Amino acid sequence: MSEIVKKPIGITETILRDAHQSLIATRMPTDLMLPILDKMDKVGYHSVECWGGATFDASLRFLKEDPWDRLRKIRDGLKNTKTQMLFRGQNILGYRPYADDVVHNFVQKSVANGIDIIRIFDCLNDLRNLQAAVDATNNIKKTEGRGHAQIALSYTLGDAYTLDYWTKMAKQIEEMGADSICIKDMAGLLVPYKATELISAMKSVTKLPIQLHTHYTSGVASMTYLKAVEAGVDVIDCAMSPFALGTSQPATEVMAETFKGTPYDPGFDQNLLAEIADYFRPYRDECLANGLLNPKVMGVDIKTLLYQVPGGMLSNMVSQLKEQNAEDRYYDVLKEIPEVRKDLGEPPLVTPSSQIVGTQAVFNVLMGERYKMATKETKAVLRGEYGQTVKPMSQEVIDKVIPGEKRITCRPADLIENEMDKLEAEMKEWKQQDEDILSYALFPQVATDFFKYRQAQQEKVDMTQADTANNAYPV
């Protein structure tokens, strides 16, 4: 009998980023993370995802914490484990495209403060919007020997998204100089046997490691991981059980146990994992008690598969209809979503394209005439401000919504002048570290409020005298 080749599956732990972003709106404070890092560092994870995504905004806005400080402390605690972040291509962690000099600076500071792997994605899968971040990471790798650029493809369904599409993208990613590929299934749409097909096809055209990221929303994620691992995927994203399942990821302990004794065994110690789970469980109970963790997000939402619409997009739509006393139009809007998506070039439904398509569908139904009113974001997509879509956009809709307007065909960031110097000049009175300029670049108002708060803390102002409602801190 031939020798069985061992191929231990790599596991990326998401409890410090996507798990709490998905379940409790990114509200886990840094102080809660630090005491357990020592144990997490001993597990043998492929990496720990701990930064980026919405953590940056939430730290400044809600937790009154410096996200850069969080990163430095986590790096300090994870001495033997790679750290990972999520990065929205040219939008970095904000909601608009930034100039290349801001992207380069942000990547450089992320690596300098402790990030190893940067997962970079674009809401349209327009690879041009990812090139600057990949180049920036590769420049650091050349000079300092650190940094890993992973390109994430937003997984979605539709006529355009054939196996041929995914394999072509995999080849292009390799040519761009990325170190690995991630399939980012944000809505839990990838079902088990399709995962076998997808991973096998991509593995046949690229030597790059492939990582799979999904959410448990539709209930199939653990089975999808099982089939993906058998098909040769290299790494899967999991969350420690107190913050797993629902809109989060499959549970780390369960996946480790599933592969125990097989060629894919990651070799994790279940007793150590149990100690980590015991540490997070009281916090989960506290979040349930104070309402931060809503039991609704912990179940299975099969509508995700039926309508191919991410859970967050559905709940957005329901609240928009409620506000208009039009809940009876729910199914009309559901029918309209794929139509709007087709008009806009069939983009993946991920932030922000999911919100843009959903809101426009609501308008089209409530107005009784399609595109009688178009949101400014719909106009921006039609103009090409977000980049290029997989399929052409509807000429009829373009003519109705932005008649005669010039459309962008180049990479949108080519039209943005360098902006680091201008940003630094605007916020220089608050600057205590170079990283502050970047915080300000992404969230000018939120960062300024945080800088005022920080100064008040440093100068030991009596906070009872501060007018916090207006963010006025007597200094």
Describe the model:
The radius of gyration is 22 Å and the shape is globular. It contains 21 helices and eight strands. Helix 19 crosses helix 20 and helix 20 (435-442) crosses helix 21 (444-458). With 475 residues, the chain is an alpha/beta fold. Helix 6 (100-112) links the parallel strand 3 and strand 4 (117-121).
Topology, please?
Layout lengths: L9 E4 L4 H7 L5 H4 L3 H4 L6 E6 L2 H7 L5 H11 L5 E5 L12 H13 L4 E5 L9 H14 L3 E7 L8 H14 L3 E6 L6 H12 L6 E5 L6 H10 L4 E4 L13 H7 L11 H20 L13 H5 L3 H13 L6 H14 L9 H15 L8 H8 L11 H7 L18 H8 L7 H8 L1 H15 L17
Parallel strand pairs: 1-2, 1-8, 2-3, 3-4, 4-5, 5-6, 6-7, 7-8
The total of helices stands at 21
**What level of helicity do the residues show?**
40-55%
Q: How many strand elements?
A: 8
What order do the strands of the largest sheet run in, or round the barrel if closed?
A: 1-2-3-4-5-6-7-8
Radius of gyration: 22 Å
Shape type: globular
Low-confidence stretches: none
Distance between the termini: 77 Å
Biggest sheet, in brief?
Answer: 8 strands, parallel, barrel
- How big a fraction of the residues is strand? 5-15%
Structural class: alpha/beta
Average pLDDT confidence is 94
Query: What is the H-and-E element order?
Result: EHHHEHHEHEHEHEHEHEHHHHHHHHHHH
Produce a short descriptive summary.
The chain has 475 residues and is an alpha/beta fold.
Which features would summarize this protein structure in a list?
475 residues, alpha/beta, 21 helices
